[in-house]
């Protein structure tokens, strides 16, 4: 059972639950104060505006006691995926390196973008081919990925960059970068392959009736 952790201000938890259900993946929305259920087989940190993004996006939620349990689950090999605000929480809690900060435009951006699959040999990307381009929605004000140059070089050398913002034809360019993320990075792995964070919303691109299903392959990482 996939535990979808709800914090005060989460607003994508039901989207995630519905998307997983459409794929036949059992999930349950869990209030952060209640802790992870004993039958948890994976964890999703959904999008939203936990605690109103007070201090920094994800900073307060990252200090909730349930995140100790999430880190333990990750260390035990359970799949953990942070999406948008969940990516910010993952970064703030040390599940992944780097940080997500204010968009280069200093505006909230809600639009569809294209991302190129950089490493197709992970549980989160095995449904795709390397270099494949996906169309996914974004909705964030603090989605710009920042990391020290040496740490970025290490991520790339270890093939831990999952997605990069690109043109529809796969060209990685400044024009395709919606928020100013360093090196167009849109999603990365943690130190363990079972942990990933990303700013685009795969759960909002997983239902036939919305017309885009490119995100299903990411969610299939919970299967």
From TrEMBL:
<keyword id="KW-0315">Glutamine amidotransferase</keyword>
<keyword id="KW-0547">Nucleotide-binding</keyword>
<keyword id="KW-0658">Purine biosynthesis</keyword>
<keyword id="KW-0436">Ligase</keyword>
<dbReference type="InterPro" id="IPR010075">
    <property type="entry name" value="PRibForGlyAmidine_synth_PurQ"/>
</dbReference>
<feature type="active site">
    <location>
        <position position="203"/>
    </location>
</feature>
<feature type="active site" description="Nucleophile">
    <location>
        <position position="84"/>
    </location>
</feature>
<protein>
    <recommendedName>
        <fullName>Phosphoribosylformylglycinamidine synthase subunit PurQ</fullName>
        <ecNumber>6.3.5.3</ecNumber>
        <ecNumber>3.5.1.2</ecNumber>
    </recommendedName>
</protein>
<keyword id="KW-0067">ATP-binding</keyword>
<dbReference type="GO" id="GO:0006189">
    <property type="term" value="P:'de novo' IMP biosynthetic process"/>
</dbReference>
<dbReference type="GO" id="GO:0005524">
    <property type="term" value="F:ATP binding"/>
</dbReference>
<dbReference type="GO" id="GO:0004642">
    <property type="term" value="F:phosphoribosylformylglycinamidine synthase activity"/>
</dbReference>
<comment type="pathway">
    <text>Purine metabolism; IMP biosynthesis via de novo pathway; 5-amino-1-(5-phospho-D-ribosyl)imidazole from N(2)-formyl-N(1)-(5-phospho-D-ribosyl)glycinamide: step 1/2.</text>
</comment>
<dbReference type="Pfam" id="PF13507">
    <property type="entry name" value="GATase_5"/>
</dbReference>
<feature type="active site">
    <location>
        <position position="201"/>
    </location>
</feature>
<comment type="subunit">
    <text>Part of the FGAM synthase complex composed of 1 PurL, 1 PurQ and 2 PurS subunits.</text>
</comment>
<dbReference type="InterPro" id="IPR029062">
    <property type="entry name" value="Class_I_gatase-like"/>
</dbReference>
<dbReference type="GO" id="GO:0004359">
    <property type="term" value="F:glutaminase activity"/>
</dbReference>
<dbReference type="GO" id="GO:0005737">
    <property type="term" value="C:cytoplasm"/>
</dbReference>
<keyword id="KW-0963">Cytoplasm</keyword>
<comment type="function">
    <text>Part of the phosphoribosylformylglycinamidine synthase complex involved in the purines biosynthetic pathway. Catalyzes the ATP-dependent conversion of formylglycinamide ribonucleotide (FGAR) and glutamine to yield formylglycinamidine ribonucleotide (FGAM) and glutamate. The FGAM synthase complex is composed of three subunits. PurQ produces an ammonia molecule by converting glutamine to glutamate. PurL transfers the ammonia molecule to FGAR to form FGAM in an ATP-dependent manner.</text>
</comment>
<keyword id="KW-0378">Hydrolase</keyword>
């Amino acid at each position: 059972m996939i535990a979808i952790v709800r914090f005060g201000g989460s607003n994508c938890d039901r989207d995630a639950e519905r998307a997983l259900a459409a794929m036949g993946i059992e999930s349950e929305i869990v209030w952060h104060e209640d802790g992870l259920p004993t039958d948890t087989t994976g964890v999703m940190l959904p999008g939203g505006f936990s605690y109103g993004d007070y201090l920094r996006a994800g900073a307060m939620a990252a200090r909730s006691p349930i995140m100790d349990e999430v880190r333990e689950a990750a260390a035990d090999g359970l799949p953990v995926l942070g999406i948008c605000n969940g990516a910010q929480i993952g970064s703030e809690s040390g599940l992944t390196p780097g940080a997500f900060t204010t968009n280069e435009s200093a505006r909230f951006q809600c639009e569809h973008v294209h991302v190129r699959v950089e490493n197709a040999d992970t549980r989160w990307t095995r449904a795709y081919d390397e270099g494949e381009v996906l169309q996914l929605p974004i909705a964030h004000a603090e989605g710009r990925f920042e990391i020290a140059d040496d740490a970025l070089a290490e991520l790339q050398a270890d093939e831990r960059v999952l997605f990069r913002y690109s043109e529809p034809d796969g060209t990685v360019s400044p024009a395709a970068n919606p928020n100013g993320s360093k090196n167009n990075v849109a999603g990365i792995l943690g130190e363990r392959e079972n942990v990933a964070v990303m700013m685009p919303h795969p759960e909002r691109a997983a239902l036939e009736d919305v017309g885009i299903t490119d995100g299903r392959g990411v969610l299939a990482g919970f299967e």
